[in-house]
Amino acid sequence: MPAPFFSVIIPVYNRISELKRAIISVYAQTCSNYELVIVDDFSDDFFSRQYARLPAEFPGIKIIPSECRGPSGARNTGIKKTAGKWIALLDSDDEWLPQKLKLQNEIIMQTGCQACYTNEKWLQNGVFRNQGKKHHKQGGWIFDLALPICIISPSSIVVSREALKTTGLFCETMEIAEDYDLWLRLTDRFAVEYIDKPLVIKHGGHEGQLSRKYPMIEKFRMQALENFLSWPQADPANRKKALNMLAQKTAIYIQGAARRGHYEEKKNRENKLDFWKTALA
């Protein structure tokens, strides 16, 4: 049996109503050449029992346990356990519009790209919100655009399995900003196509969002920048840009640490930055 074109991977932890909404949006796709895998990220038994009933409601769906706790581990498990030529990620609290995979498939066929993402709608507590200027999106060689913040939503991107062989998978030691971490490597190595249509609805403002659990996301972005600086395949020019961005983020972070009286953390961050400046001099 030939491999599907897309492997759709939905990691989930202790959600069922939102998960069903995401699944329904996949089944509504006008492109049918996909497999759908739900990766149970160590959910409580109550939820795992409900996931086990999903194949009866959604024929063809696969439920597999994650090999490593956290969103990175769950996504990586899904990537390793599927066969599609392209990986399509969907967070369990998001949903797709029906033409998403079809339009991305068309772009892939037209351009021969290795990754393609789309615009999105933000729905927070039932109200659609506008994206700020800092979330401006475009296609091409977008490493510079991907440096300050994470501009690519995991739910919006499809990426070839071949590209992931070059970049590596999600960093399983990062609790948050793991997507930013991978996109730095992806945009360093590949041009990324962009569809300027909102083909994803991102739901926010609810309990269970990791961004609410970890308000100090810049700390994790600095870790991602350090990961990129130590990546042997990084383009030298982009490594220099990443060092400059790390310096900017460190300067802001240590000001906040000083205001809060966290002088040891301030010193640790200063020492880390000095290390990288010396190592890359």
Rg, rounded, reads 19 Å
- Specify the biggest β-sheet: 9 strands, mixed
For the termini, the CA-CA separation is: 53 Å
Q: So, the CATH homologous superfamily of the largest domain?
A: Spore Coat Polysaccharide Biosynthesis Protein SpsA, Chain A
Can you tell me about this structure?
The protein has twelve helices and nine strands. Helix 7 (161-167) packs across helix 8 (178-189). The mean pLDDT is 93. It folds into two domains: 6-213, Spore Coat Polysaccharide Biosynthesis Protein SpsA, Chain A, CATH 3.90.550.10; 217-279. It is globular. With 281 residues, it is an alpha/beta fold. Strands 1, 2, 3, 4, 5, 6, 7, 8 and 9 form a nine-stranded mixed beta sheet that branches. It has helices spanning 17-27, 45-52, 54-57, 71-80, 100-111, 143-146, 161-167, 178-189, 210-213, 217-229, 236-259, 263-279; strands at 6-12, 34-40, 62-65, 86-89, 94-96, 115-124, 127-129, 158-160, 193-204.
Q: How is the secondary structure organized here?
A:
Blueprint: E1 6-12, H1 17-27, E2 34-40, H2 45-52, H3 54-57, E3 62-65, H4 71-80, E4 86-89, E5 94-96, H5 100-111, E6 115-124, E7 127-129, H6 143-146, E8 158-160, H7 161-167, H8 178-189, E9 193-204, H9 210-213, H10 217-229, H11 236-259, H12 263-279
Parallel strand pairs: 1-2, 1-4, 2-3, 6-9
Antiparallel strand pairs: 4-8, 5-9, 6-7, 6-8
Helix pairs in contact: 7-8, 8-10, 10-11, 11-12
